[in-house]
Design a protein that fits this description.
The radius of gyration is 14 Å and the shape is elongated. The strands form three sheets. The protein has a four-stranded antiparallel sheet with strand order 2-5-6-7, with no helix packed on it. A two-stranded antiparallel sheet has the order 1-8. Strands 3-4 form a two-stranded antiparallel ribbon. It has 105 residues and is an all-beta fold. 0% of the residues lie in helices and 47% in strands.
């Protein structure tokens, strides 16, 4: 689940550069779901838009390795427009991933 704070809720999320792995989707509410179908690295940018039209972008790298998923936050550029500025963050819920991806057996 990707989250944002500040700005004016509600927020909408979209992949605006790069691509998620085949089988994985990002909902407009920020939820990541699905099961990747290939083992490789994927780079993508998510743009979050608040209800007043202010936007912030964050670059992510997602690596899929034989049942292991690693999501790395690559940083959020400074917000230069819109009030107040807001930033995004990411966390991964193990409940929707295979046991091996979360270190469970």
């Amino acid at each position: 689940m990707l989250t944002a704070s500040g700005g004016t809720a509600p927020y909408t999320y979209a992949v605006t550069a790069g691509a998620l792995p085949a089988g994985v989707a990002l909902s407009s509410a920020g939820g990541l779901s699905g099961v990747p179908t290939a083992s490789e690295s994927f780079n993508f940018t998510v743009t979050v838009t608040d209800s007043s039209g202010s936007k912030v972008m964050a670059a992510y790298s997602l690596t899929v390795n034989a049942g292991t998923v690693a999501l790395t936050f690559a940083g959020v550029p400074a917000q230069t427009y819109g009030n107040p500025p807001f930033m995004g963050s990411c966390w991964r819920s193990c409940s929707s991933l295979p046991n091996a991806a979360c270190g469970r057996r």
